[in-house]
Amino acid sequence: MTTATTALPTTPKPAGRNLGQAKQMVLAFASLIAMIVFFSAMRPDSFMATDNFMAILQSTAVIGVMAIAVTFVIITSGIDLAVGVLMTFTAVMAGVFMTNWGWPMVVGVPATLLMGALVGMCNGLIITRLKVAPFIATLGMMMLLKGASLLITEARPIYFSDVEGFDKISLGSFVEHVLPFLPIPNGALVFFIVAVLASIILNKTALGRYTFALGSNEEAVRLSGVNVNRWKVIIYTLCGGICGISGLLVASRLNSAQPALGQGYELDAIAAVVIGGTSLAGGTGTILGTVIGAFIMSVLINGLRIMSVAQEWQMVLTGLIIIVAVYTDNLRRDQ
Asked: CA separation (Å) from 12 to 16, 194, 259, 308?
């Protein structure tokens, strides 16, 4: 008797697409260097200050972790518009667990990550079971979570003043104790660790191979006998869990959960992903590219603020960057 086994999909990536993705990453990195040089020349005293670089690392950590989360979804040719508000919701739930209910951090932190994963799983189930388009499903979840955050907190911040050590999640510096000349904040260290683990998952595991395969040719994966819906739910669950990390980082950085914060962050995260070379059509993408894209977004926002550019114009520039990034992605796919 022989037992049939389902082989992992091995959809090959066209050489031209790989080359185009590499070019996009090189262009993104060159753009990052150019921006750093420009802002350094325009505001050398402010932009080049050590405190400002630490602030850039802190903001990149929050945007970057969210961008890593949504990278998995976008590679499957999906989208998650709820990641920004989910970050806020998990921060609020961390406040409920550790401040309102008095749970210790050793319990509250995993519970927060579990809450993010649960929301991500709900997104996946709505998309796969109810057959709702990812754009609509996650847009609805965004509005639901925004309202839930305001209702749970009664539109008031939750402070972590009595939670000993919570601020160290983001603001402390474990690296500085080992290397005193390198005061990298813990938030940035968490970001780098998440990036490394996400890269391993994406490139070295079955989950990563299915992620690429779903974005390349979902129908072929389905016809090969793979439970496509199950893997989609797993991917959205992973996205939600990683967003829980960003919620902990932003709450630790502010030492509070701000229920009105979060909307608009999803645009920065998605922009970082696309700038880094991940295609909105699915099938291609790298965590390294997303990391570069996240630094571009945070350096741009930080530099514009230092130059006293109005927030309205910052939003205009962010929108233009997204349009240009998507346009270059279309050009790369047409080659």
From this structure: 12, 27, 44, 47
Lookup: tokens for 301: 């926002």
Q: Hey, how many other C-beta atoms are within 10 angstroms of the C-beta on 152?
A: 17
Q: Is residue 1 part of a domain?
A: no
Could you tell me if residue 8 is inside a domain? no
Q: Which helix (H) or strand (E) holds 159?
A: strand 158-159
- Determine the longest span between alpha carbons in the chain, in angstroms: 75
- CATH number of residue 70's parent domain: 1.10.3470
Domain of residue 311 covers: 56-334
Q: Give Cβ neighbours of residue 317 (< 8 Å, ≥ 6 apart).
A: 300, 304
Pick from 304, 190, 305, 194: nearest CA to 250: 190
Cβ atoms of residues 288 and 276 within 8 Å:
yes
Q: What are phi and psi of 225, to 5 degrees?
A: 95, 10
Model pLDDT, residue 334: 65
pTM for the structure as a whole: 0.91
How many distinct structural domains can be found in the chain? 1
DSSP state of 256: E
| Per-residue pLDDT tens over the stretch 153-182 | 999 999 999 999 999 999 877 876 676 767
- Give the dihedral of Cα atoms 68, 72, 73, 74; nearest 10 deg: 80
Burial (CB count <10 Å: 0-12, 13-18, 19+), residue 4? exposed
> How many angstroms from the chain centroid is the CA of residue 85?
12
Task: Copy the structure tokens of residue 267.
Answer: 């645009």
User: Which 8-state DSSP code applies to residue 167?
Assistant: G
Q: Which residues contact 29 (CB under 8 A, 6 or more apart)?
A: 292
- Contact between 200 and 209 under an 8 Å Cβ cutoff? The reply is no
Cα–Cα distance, 28 to 148 (Å, whole number): 37
Position 277 confidence tier, pLDDT thresholds 50, 70, 90: confident
6 is a domain residue: no
